[in-house]
């Protein structure tokens, strides 16, 4: 998944997302350490999928921005099937 050419926004890769900690400090981390706990897509027109993950210490939110609406729906469906799995495991998926 992490190397798929459509998993990008304006030419920049979207995976893995930048993760923002939901505590008061709002620290940012990168990488694939943690488990996917929730996904939300509010407006398809935005082609943005919001992800939540927990790494055992903190809860984080990240966003996938995509350019292709059809591909965005495919990724959303794929992620819904993988809630509870590790972010690394999801990144390893073949699309």
Give a written overview of the molecule:
This protein is an alpha+beta fold and 95 residues long. 19% of the residues lie in helices and 31% in strands. The chain has a domain at 1-62. It is built from two helices and seven strands; from the N terminus they run βββββββαα. The protein has a five-stranded antiparallel β-sheet with strand order 4-3-7-6-5. The protein is globular, with a radius of gyration of 12 Å.
Concise synopsis of the structure shown:
By secondary structure, the chain is an alpha+beta fold. The chain has a domain at 1-62.
Task: Set down the secondary structure blueprint.
Blueprint: E1 8-9, E2 12-13, E3 19-21, E4 28-29, E5 35-40, E6 48-54, E7 59-65, H1 69-81, H2 87-91
Antiparallel strand pairs: 1-2, 3-4, 3-7, 5-6, 6-7
Give the tally of β-strands: 7
| C-alpha termini separation | 6 Å
Mean of residue pLDDT values: 94
Q: What overall form do the CA principal axes indicate? A: globular
Strands side by side in the biggest sheet: 4-3-7-6-5
Helix content: 10-25%
Notable characteristics:
2 helices, 7 strands, globular, 19% helix, alpha+beta, two-stranded antiparallel sheet, single chain, five-stranded antiparallel β-sheet, 95 residues
């Amino acid at each position: 998944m992490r190397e798929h050419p459509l998993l990008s926004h304006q030419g920049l890769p979207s995976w893995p997302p930048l993760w923002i900690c939901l505590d008061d400090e709002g620290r940012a981390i990168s990488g694939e350490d943690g488990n996917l706990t929730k996904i939300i897509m509010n407006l398809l027109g935005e082609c943005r999928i919001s992800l939540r993950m927990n790494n055992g210490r903190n809860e984080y939110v990240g966003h996938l921005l995509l350019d292709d609406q059809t591909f965005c729906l495919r990724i959303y469906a794929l992620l819904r099937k993988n809630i509870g799995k590790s972010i690394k495991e999801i990144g390893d998926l073949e699309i």
